[in-house]
């Protein structure tokens, strides 16, 4: 299969999983309990309280259409196309749920509904964001802030959604409104944490007398590469070679175990890297 088509299939598959999670979190946890936790979905919940005959999914779709022009003009056609798919897909899935699987009250506990719904929605939105799309609405505004002002996506969402949360306080009362505000705060932190988790890698600096075997293992067993730096031992006064490599967690564990076997006296420095772009990792053009 063409690599571009394969990547596109992967992206849209993960986006689809993400929007399904967001829709389930809304329909079964937030909407039944009037938790307007920001975003167009939160605004739609507020509007639905005044127009109960109009489904929340339809309101979300209508509100998103107003913002799509902004997305196409400021974020480019690729992002706009994926966002269009995500928004229509989420609205369609919400309609299917409302039409054929009417949400039931799983629990009356407002805290459990707020917490579980926020976790499910946070995971779903992280997937959508991580593969270059948005669920539409205020997510678009958050992406614009992230692109042009270099804000974290989670913090951008927090700023935009805070005012919607205040609307929830005025509409549904102090208890539901405050839970909504708490959901907004934690949702932003969860999104940033989950996105970091998707792109996390290990940055390694290795000093070993078995550098040749380690390089061979990295290249032939892990199908990765490394950079060899010439160094000088301050204590030993000997010339040394320092291996620099960036690996995914699973590859790092395999390499660490290999080094333990061949050179227990090796020196390894490990740092957490939150994003890696370039050959062998995420395409820097995306």
From TrEMBL:
InterPro entries: DUF2179 (IPR019264), N-reg_PII/ATP_PRibTrfase_C (IPR015867), UPF0750_membrane (IPR051461), YitT (IPR003740). Residues 224-278 form the DUF2179 domain. It comes from the Bacteria. Its main location: membrane. The keyword Cell membrane applies. The chain crosses the membrane at residues 12-29, 35-51, 58-78, 110-129, 162-186. It is a multi-pass membrane protein. Keywords: Cell membrane, Membrane, Transmembrane, Transmembrane helix. It is found in: Cell membrane. One of its GO terms (cellular component) is plasma membrane. This is YitT family protein. It comes from Proteiniclasticum sediminis.
């Amino acid at each position: 299969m063409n690599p571009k088509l394969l990547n596109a299939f992967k992206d849209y598959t993960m986006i689809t999983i993400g929007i399904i999670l967001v829709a389930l979190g809304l329909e079964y946890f937030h909407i039944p309990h009037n938790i307007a936790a920001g975003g167009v979905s939160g605004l739609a919940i507020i509007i639905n309280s005044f127009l109960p005959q109009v489904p929340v999914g339809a309101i979300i779709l209508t509100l998103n259409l107003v913002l799509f022009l902004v997305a196409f003009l400021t974020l480019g056609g690729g992002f706009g196309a994926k966002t269009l798919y995500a928004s229509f897909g989420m609205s369609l899935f919400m309609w299917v749920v409302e039409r054929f699987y009417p949400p039931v009250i799983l629990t009356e506990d407002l805290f459990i509904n707020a917490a579980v719904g926020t976790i499910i929605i946070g995971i779903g939105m992280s997937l959508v964001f991580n593969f270059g799309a948005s669920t539409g609405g205020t997510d678009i505004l958050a992406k614009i802030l992230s692109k042009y002002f270099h804000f974290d996506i989670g913090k951008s969402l927090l700023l935009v959604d805070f005012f919607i949360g205040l609307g929830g306080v005025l509409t549904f009362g102090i208890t539901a409104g405050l839970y909504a505000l708490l959901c907004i705060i934690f949702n932003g932190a969860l999104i940033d944490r989950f996105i970091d988790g998707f792109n996390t890698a290990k940055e390694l600096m290795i000093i070993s007398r078995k550098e040749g075997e380690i390089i061979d293992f990295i290249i032939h067993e892990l199908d990765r590469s490394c950079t060899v730096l010439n160094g000088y031992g301050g204590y030993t006064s000997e010339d040394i070679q320092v291996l620099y490599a960036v690996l995914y967690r699973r590859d790092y564990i395999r390499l660490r175990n290999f080094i333990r076997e061949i050179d227990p006296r090796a020196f390894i420095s490990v740092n957490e890297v939150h994003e890696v772009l370039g050959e062998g990792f995420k395409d820097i053009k995306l």
